[in-house]
What we know:
About 20% of the residues lie in helices and about 40% in strands. With about 120 residues, the protein is of the alpha+beta class. The protein folds into two domains: about 5-55; about 65-115, no CATH class. The strands form two sheets. Strands 4-3-2-1-5 form a five-stranded antiparallel β-sheet. Strands 6-7-8-9 form a four-stranded antiparallel β-sheet, covered by helices on one side. A hairpin with a 2-residue loop joins strand 8 (about 80-85) and strand 9.
Amino acid sequence: MLKVNDTIRMVKPIGKVDMTGQIFNVIDIDNEGITLAIGFNRAYMSIDGYEKYFVKVKQWTDWIRIGSIAYKTDNEKYVKLRFGDYSAKASCHPMDTFDIDIGIQVCMDKIARKMKQ
């Protein structure tokens, strides 16, 4: 789900406008479309246009250390966790509400299974 302050990347030219690979910031969303910014320039497009020409850029936090583990998250769906030489990734089901604590626990369970092997 796209929201204000997300970043998106153009993946396909729009007519003669080819800014493929460029990153845009979402600065407003209303019922009819999305306002984008790149530098001081602004553009408005329909939500259908976004889905056709852009992809959302995943924004990860920095690694956060808690004792001997480190984790990072996109605060929407994913958690990555490292413990020594082990690592794991967990994702939230689309029908569930994201919960960082559950994501960390799922990762720890995966790492525990790896350590037993």
